[in-house]
Amino acid sequence: MAKSRGAPAKSARRSAAAAARGATSDAKGSINLRIETGTRQLIDDAAAVLGKTRTEFMVESARRQAVDVLLDQRLFTLDPERYDAFMQALDNPPAPGPKLKALLRRVPAWRT
Question: Where exactly are the structural domains of the chain?
Answer without folding.
Answer: 31-91
